[in-house]
Amino acid sequence: MDNSVNVIPKLKARYIGKPLLNSLTKKSFAGSVVGIYQDFCNIMGNDGRMITIAISPIGKSPFSVLIERQDLTRSITAKMNVRANQYGISISDTIFISLNNAETWDPKMLQFPQTFCLKASSAELLFESTQWFEPTFKNSNDKYVIDKLIAGAEQLQHALINRHPIKRSVKYLAGLGFGLTPSGDDYLLGVMASLWITKNTHSLDEIARLSSQKTTSLSAAYLIAASKGDFAECWHDLVQSVLYQDPKTLRDSISEFTQIGASSGQDALAGFSTQILNSKFSLNTVRN
After folding, report:
1. Sign of torsion, CA 209 214 215 216?
2. Residue 186: exposure state from Cβ atoms within 10 A (0-12, 13-18, ≥19)
3. Residues contacting residue 137 through CB under 8 Å, at least 6 positions apart
4. Which letter does DSSP use for residue 119 in this model?
5. In CATH, what number does 10-105 get?
6. Torsion angle, alpha carbons of 188, 189, 191, 194, to 10
7. What's the Cα-to-Cα distance from 4 to each of 1, 7, 8, 11, 94, rounded to whole Å?
8. What one-character-per-residue DSSP string does 137-191 give?
9. pTM score > 0.85 for this model?
């Protein structure tokens, strides 16, 4: 007679996004795995909430749980059922991730003081990032989408500068492009990051509401979080370097940011840089 008992592997979370923990504390979570990749998996709740399980080298996000390095593709598969609360995450009753001793990470991004003034050296570095697609996209098969992205970005910037309605341009960009976070969404996220740090926040809710209806679940989660001032760790690092305005640090930070995803970092940085260069903080750019 076999008296063996199946023991559910128990993993310990290192970090959890504060908004996610607050959400799990208020209401338990039920959903399923919707995407599994080498370094992370995405879990969609039945009520639309998102949880990302990621290995530690992946940066923190508002809705992520970071664990020690694991081969996620060996233990987690798509469509597995997931249940979670503030104490832990159970994946198809085969894995349990304990949240008891996880460090809570606050994704709320800083906002610049009214006295901030962009230096000429910083403005020049950021301007290089506004040249969207020109250095990297040469495939004629992508030209149609690229032209639409550039047109949508120009429409959005014109609307924001002139305080015109942004509904048309936001809906035009939302979901435009390819991948888990399409280029149009990444551009919108970059614009939102700039609007947040410059305390020009009145458009954030509208951008999130309009765009989240037309894009992927992962993009929607990032955009909705951004409307509340919550951004992934990579954004915090970039914004800190802009605030400190040390040329070498900013150059390195921009270079690192552009390495995110296939083009997500470049797309988001284009939106961020264009918007901040149009903001009040760069109107009186000072020489170094």
Report:
1. positive
2. buried
3. 146
4. B
5. 2.40.50
6. 170
7. 9, 9, 13, 21, 16
8. ---GGGHHHHHHHHHHHHHHHHHHHTT---HHHHHHHTT-SSSSS-HHHHHHHHH
9. yes
Nearest to 152 by CA among 245, 241, 270: 270
Q: What DSSP assignment string belongs to 185-244?
A: HHHHHHHHHHHHHTT--TTHHHHHHHHHTSS-HHHHHHHHHHTTTB--HHHHHHHHHHHH
**127: β partners:** none
- Collapse the DSSP code of 286 into the 3-class scheme (helix H, G, I; strand E, B; otherwise coil) and give the result: strand
Per-domain residue ranges of the chain: 10-105, 120-282
The pair of structure tokens assigned to 252 is 């390195």
Tokens 């037309």 — which residue?
Answer: 214
Query: Parallel, antiparallel, or unpaired for β 103-105 and 10-17?
Result: parallel
Residue 197's CB: how many other CB atoms inside 10 A?
25
pLDDT band at 94 (very low <50, low <70, confident <90, very high): confident
Q: Are the beta carbons of 127 and 133 closer than 8 angstroms?
A: no
Distance from C-alpha of 267 to C-alpha of 244, rounded to nearest angstrom: 23
Question: How does 32-50 read in b/e, with b if 16+ C-beta sit within 10 Å?
Answer: ebbebeeebbbbbbeeebb
d(CA 256, CA 238): 9
How many whole angstroms separate alpha carbon 205 and alpha carbon 173?
Answer: 16
For residue 70, the cross-strand partners are none
Q: Look up tokens 């997931």; give the residue.
A: 82
pLDDT interval class at 7 (50, 70, 90): low
| Spatial separation of the C-alpha atoms in residues 218 and 119, rounded to whole Å | 35
**pLDDT value for 131:** 82
Kindly state the tokens that stand for 87: 């104490």
* pLDDT interval class at 1 (50, 70, 90): very low
